[in-house]
Amino acid sequence: MDHIWSPWRMKYIRRHKSPKGCVFCDAVKMEDGDKNLIITRGELAYVIMNRYPYTSGHIMIVPFKHVGKFENMDQETSAEIMFLTRQGIIALEKIYQPDGYNMGANLGASAGAGIESHIHFHLVPRWGGDTNFMSSIGGIRVLPEDLTETLEHLKDAWPKETYPSK
Ligand SMILES: [Zn+2]
């Protein structure tokens, strides 16, 4: 995903380098809405919008547990993350019909993780030519839709099925 030129993300990375607190743990403590940008909560993981998205509809699937390493994530959490990712694609298809998606995690700072202490999985909708669009805007954060609006759309479009409990 690094080939998408997105200078606003530097502000994000710098802001969250502070050793105190964790944005993903803090978001969970807040009431869901415009402030924390949480779309839905599952049993072991939740879905949140990226405040500094690569493209409109860029969401993240995050375990509730503060786990940094992929190999330390338990099987139940991994399974629910896949379930929520699939729901995310269903919702994004309904709203935006993107041409494709990038999905995955950056593990470790060298791999591009902005917050390495709490694992999170990106789901980024892609459109043909979005890279050109992004790089032509000269450092100004321009997205076709604001975050609050995207949050509402995603909440409406999110599938109603809940994760099958044990
Ligand atoms: Zn955390």
Short description:
The chain contains 5 helices and 5 strands, in the order H-H-E-E-E-H-E-E-H-H. With 166 residues, the chain is an alpha+beta fold. It has one domain (8-157): HIT-like (HIT family, subunit A, 2-Layer Sandwich), CATH 3.30.428.10.
Structure characterization notes:
There is one protein chain. The protein is an alpha+beta fold and 166 residues long. The chain has one domain: HIT-like (HIT family, subunit A), CATH 3.30.428.10. It is built from 5 helices and 5 strands, in the order H-H-E-E-E-H-E-E-H-H. A 5-stranded antiparallel beta sheet has the order 1-2-3-5-4, sandwiched between helices. A hairpin with a 3-residue loop joins strand 1 and strand 2. The radius of gyration is 15 Å and the shape is globular. Zinc ion binds next to helix 2.
Task: Present the secondary structure layout.
Blueprint: H1 8-15, H2 23-29, E1 38-41, E2 45-49, E3 59-63, H3 75-96, E4 100-104, E5 121-126, H4 130-135, H5 147-157
Bound molecules: zinc ion (ZN).
